[in-house]
Write a structure and sequence with these properties.
267 residues, mainly alpha, 63% helix, disordered C terminus
């Protein structure tokens, strides 16, 4: 059965109040559902819209104010003034709210004082470009502090985040491709598309590259290996112990990162 059967029937029966109510109900479900409903409406000759009344029912274009309270007020206004402009606005609000991460509150974060001072200045200035650049810089040099800085900044400035664009700036999940060249390209992409998904990926890549076992396999480590004439009897055992340690560390990181990100960025 057509998933829009109720809407189609309401329009074909010229039951305009019911058709409007059904569309508003779809808005509570998903962006895709609204898009489909609009296609149904456009395929019918019955006009279910009325002129937009901005005086009685003003539309707020400030994205930072689009929260649950605004949403409920907007759906109520839609029942009194069902205009194309208001429905389009409703569509944009739904997309924005779905894109916002459910994130730990800033007051729960113990942020490094020096980092917080820098971030507060940029947040106060509403300088989003410099704020994004600062966060990418922290991720480059102090990855262990980047997550807290990111959470704090997004809580203060939700508009800092952009919708993830996988087509223009794809993410490579293959660890075999994660090297310094990939990292530099990733930081560049982040400045063009500052998304939650990209930050999560960058955090994984940075922690992967910072692992001791990954560093030990790089060419730079060859020049500092012990002389082969050193005590071989203890050297072999030490290498085995170190290898086991690196394996345990690597396993712990691979397991821990998704769990932490899942808890902090449920969306």
């Amino acid at each position: 059965m057509n998933q829009y059967f109720d809407l189609i029937k309401a329009i074909d029966d010229a039951n305009i109040p019911l058709a409007r109510s059904i569309i508003i109900g779809y808005a509570n479900q998903s962006v895709k559902k609204i898009t489909g409903a609009l296609d149904v409406v456009n395929s019918r000759t019955l006009n279910i819209f009325e002129p937009n009344d901005e005086l009685l029912y003003p539309i707020n274009s400030d994205v930072t104010s689009w929260d649950e309270d605004y949403w409920h007020g907007l759906t109520s206004d839609m029942m009194h003034n069902f205009s194309k402009e208001r429905l389009k606005h409703l569509f944009e609000v739904v997309k924005a709210m779905k894109a916002k991460p459910e994130i730990v509150k800033a007051h729960d974060i113990l942020l490094d004082a020096a980092i917080k001072q820098k971030l507060d200045v940029l947040i106060h200035e509403s300088n989003l470009e410099r704020l994004r650049s600062e966060l990418v810089g922290i991720l480059n040099v102090e990855a262990d502090k980047a997550l807290k800085a990111f959470i704090y900044s997004v809580e203060q400035k939700p508009e800092l985040l952009q919708n993830h664009d996988e087509d223009l700036y794809p993410i490579d999940d293959n660890e075999n491709s994660w090297d310094n060249n990939y990292w530099h390209g990733l930081t560049s992409d982040m400045m063009h598309n500052f998304s939650k998904e990209r930050f999560e990926h960058m955090l994984k890549v940075r922690q992967y590259l910072d692992r001791e076992d990954v560093q030990d396999t790089s060419p730079q480590e060859e020049s500092v290996r012990p002389n082969e004439n050193d005590d071989k009897s203890t050297d072999g055992k030490d290498k085995q112990d170190n290898t086991l340690t690196y394996i345990l560390i690597a396993a712990g990181i691979v397991i821990a990162i998704p769990v932490v990100l899942w808890l902090l960025f449920k969306s």
